[in-house]
């Protein structure tokens, strides 16, 4: 699963997992912080960030917490 992301240097597809990890770090969240915010476990979040899980319900919770509207969070 990928989404399109524009970069000033080039255009490339990045994975949802990479998007989540980058957005979490940019927001200043640790995995523990995001776990508390989303109600997910650190293990579940790690699986999402590693690309080993793409559970839509979990992705929506993370997208909403990180305000990643392109990943299915409500606008």
From TrEMBL:
CDD domains: HTH_XRE. It comes from the Bacteria. SUPFAM superfamilies: lambda repressor-like DNA-binding domains (SSF47413). Residues 19-73 form the HTH cro/C1-type domain. It holds the Pfam family HTH_3. This is Helix-turn-helix domain-containing protein.
């Amino acid at each position: 699963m990928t989404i399109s992301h524009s970069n000033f240097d080039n255009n490339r597809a990045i994975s949802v997992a990479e998007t989540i990890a980058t957005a979490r770090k940019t927001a200043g969240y640790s995995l523990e912080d995001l776990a508390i915010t989303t109600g997910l476990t650190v293990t579940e979040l790690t699986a999402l960030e590693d690309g080993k899980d793409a559970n839509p319900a979990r992705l929506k919770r993370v997208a909403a917490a990180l305000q990643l509207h392109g990943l299915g969070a409500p606008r």
